[in-house]
Structures are given as C-alpha cells and as structure tokens.
Design a protein that fits this description.
Strand 1 and strand 2 form a beta hairpin. It contains five helices and two strands; from the N terminus they run H-E-E-H-H-H-H. By secondary structure, the protein is mostly helical.
C-alpha cells in the first residue's frame, strides 16, 4: 500500500496509516490545536462531557489545573497514602457482602 500511495495514506476520512515514524512528532505536537472528529465525541454515549469535548478551545477551558503533573508531584505523598489505604477501605466495604457470599456457599 505504501509503495503505491506513499508514506502517509488516508484509510478513511478519520484514519491515517503512517509508515514514516518521523511524521508522528509533527502530527502529535503539543502545540497542535486540533479539534476532535464528530465521531470521536460520540464514543462514550455521553455527549457534552469532558472526554467528548469537540473543540480544542472548549476542552482547554474545561481542563482542570489540578490534572497538571506539577500538582501530582506536589501532592504525591498524600495520593500515595490514599492509594495504600484503598485496599483496606474496599475490604471494609465488601466485608458484609463477603460474609453473606461465604455463608451461601456453605449452605449449598
């Protein structure tokens, strides 16, 4: 296919096939202000939500400043403590259900 049509081939209106790996950096630059294709905004069945924001500008307005890596690094110890406590919290929440499930297994 690439021998006939070249290093970048449009498969359909929404899909490219790229043979030239150097083109990826140009296509996916951080300063590219691209909008999503309308089909991409319908993928989760929830139009108008954050992940389905169609225009770059609206997505930028909605993006939370707390999702920047500098904020994660600043609060890493807090996030780590929460993640370590998560299994215990889940087990406390599940414990009544587990007891019931074990009881039902013994009955049968």
């Amino acid at each position: 296919m690439h021998e006939q049509y070249g290093p970048i081939v449009r498969i359909n209106p929404e899909e490219l096939h790229i043979q030239d790996t150097e083109f990826y950096d140009q296509l996916y630059r951080r300063d590219n202000k691209l909008d999503k294709f309308p089909g991409q905004t319908k993928m989760f069945g929830m139009p108008g939500t954050f992940f389905t924001t169609e225009t770059h500008e609206l997505h930028r307005e909605r993006r939370s400043p707390f999702l920047q890596s500098v904020h994660f690094i600043k609060h890493l110890s807090f996030i780590s403590a929460l993640m370590q406590a998560l299994p215990d919290t889940v087990m406390l929440w599940l414990r009544p259900s587990l007891r019931l499930a074990m009881h039902l297994m013994k009955v049968n």
